[in-house]
Design goal:
Layout lengths: L1 E2 L7 E2 L26 H14 L19 H17 L3 H7 L7
Antiparallel strand pairs: 1-2
Length: about 100
């Protein structure tokens, strides 16, 4: 909840972003292992779910908002969530090969 920008003190509920409703991404996207699930099929599935959960802008060529943008904190939080989805749908062997610190989806 946030206070009204007018200073009236009213509290408004913020809408829940659809990405927060995903409790287990592995039930939606199979694990990329390179043999049973190929990169091509995994990316098609991942993009489909990213579109459905309104996070496609985190994996396409859309630029991240600047840190001073009022929506940046939520964008950054959702970006971390999408990055977790990516890591959680990779086989252990592939994950350790691409795991990086301070990266975005």
């Amino acid at each position: 909840m946030t206070k009204d920008a007018s200073g009236s003190g009213e509290v408004k509920a913020m809408a829940l972003h659809p990405a927060y409703t995903v409790t287990n991404i592995k039930t939606k996207i199979r694990t990329l292992d390179g043999s049973k699930v190929t990169y091509s099929s995994w990316t098609k599935l991942f993009r489909l779910h990213a579109k459905a959960y309104k996070v496609l802008d985190h994996i396409d060529d859309t630029s991240a908002p600047v840190e001073t943008d009022p929506g940046y904190l939520q964008w950054d939080e959702i970006d971390a969530l999408v990055l977790q989805w990516i890591y959680n749908t990779l086989s252990d062997e592939l994950m350790v090969r691409i795991l990086e610190t301070d990266t975005t989806a």
